[in-house]
């Protein structure tokens, strides 16, 4: 049997508050409208739900039975809505360990200052499973991604601690840390092309590899060495004055950061996060 949802809501409110007038105030409608809804509901069910007197109303036995059911039902709906609203504010991000550590986490407070009602949960790892509830920020090849999914096309250059930069031209041999990706389907980092671009093919260089850019950056600090890595991951260190970018020409790469099927992830809070993130990683 189909009954009107507004009628059920009017009944539930009147039964809980013991007054048509109080129900009308709670629902922002007139007492006449409450009475009309309940009358229609009684006609539809062919029962009497309230005993009406000049001063008050009281539930019949059938009215009490329906009151318990409607109160439980609307409470279940309200609880579900509250849970959904909380989940909407929860932004689940999955990305590489390097991007999480060097870009997202240091800048999160800035995001919270702008959107204090949001909460960002970051899952890091090199293998990211597809999930409609998780925003996947990945590093991949530009040619294999949809243009609408790309959030940053990557460039590479040489970086080091500030005091090490002056030694670059004088040193007979230098050590460069760079990346040999865990994902062997990705292209190699463009180190050889960068050396040729900058006329450094004949310079004595010892190249050492890690499987994540994060480790190469950290090790270059410890050894006063150099790291050849993406410009995106060094932005925070450059701003803090911890790293400096050498006066060499950056090289475009085959890599980009992208969000797979980005348009399918554009809930209200995800949209705000993506908008903030694109501005963050594209400012120089």
TrEMBL record:
Where does the record place the HTH lysR-type domain? 3-60
Q: Which Pfam families match?
A: HTH_1 (PF00126)
Q: Which domain of life is it from?
A: Bacteria
Task: Note the InterPro entries from the entry.
Answer: LysR-type_TF_proteobact-type (IPR058163), LysR_HTH_N (IPR000847), WH-like_DNA-bd_sf (IPR036388), WH_DNA-bd_sf (IPR036390)
**Which SUPFAM superfamilies does the record cross-reference, listed alphabetically?**
Periplasmic binding protein-like II, Winged helix' DNA-binding domain
The entry sums up its family as follows: Belongs to the LysR transcriptional regulatory family.
> What is the protein name for this chain?
LysR family transcriptional regulator
Q: Tell me the organism.
A: Marinobacterium rhizophilum
Recall the taxonomic lineage recorded for the source organism: Bacteria, Pseudomonadati, Pseudomonadota, Gammaproteobacteria, Oceanospirillales
């Amino acid at each position: 049997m189909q009954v009107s949802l507004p009628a059920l809501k009017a009944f539930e409110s009147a039964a809980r508050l013991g007054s048509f007038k109080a129900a009308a105030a709670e629902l922002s409608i007139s007492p006449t409208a409450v009475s009309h809804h309940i009358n229609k509901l009684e006609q539809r069910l062919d029962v009497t739900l309230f005993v009406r007197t000049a001063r008050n109303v009281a539930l019949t036995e059938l009215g009490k039975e329906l009151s318990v059911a409607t109160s439980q039902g609307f409470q279940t709906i309200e609880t579900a809505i509250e849970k959904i609203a909380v989940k909407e504010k929860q932004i689940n991000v999955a990305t590489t360990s390097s991007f999480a550590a060097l870009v997202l986490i240091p800048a999160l407070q800035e995001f919270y200052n702008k959107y204090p009602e949001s909460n960002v949960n970051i899952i890091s790892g090199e293998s990211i499973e597809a999930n409609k509830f998780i925003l996947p920020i990945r590093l991949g090849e530009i040619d294999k991604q949809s243009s609408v999914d790309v959030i940053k096309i990557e460039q590479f250059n040489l970086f080091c601690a500030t005091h090490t930069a002056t030694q670059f031209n004088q040193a007979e041999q230098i050590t460069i840390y760079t990346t040999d990706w865990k994902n062997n389907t990705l292209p190699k980092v463009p180190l050889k092309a960068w050396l040729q671009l900058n006329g450094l093919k004949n310079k004595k260089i010892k190249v050492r590899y890690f499987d994540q850019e994060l480790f190469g950056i950290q090790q270059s600090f410890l050894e006063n060495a150099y790291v050849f890595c993406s410009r995106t991951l060094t932005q925070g260190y450059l701003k803090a004055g911890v790293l400096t970018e050498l006066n060499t020409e950056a090289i475009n790469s085959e890599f980009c950061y992208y969000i797979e099927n980005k348009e399918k992830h554009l809930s209200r809070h995800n949209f705000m996060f993506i908008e903030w993130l694109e501005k963050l990683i594209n400012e120089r």
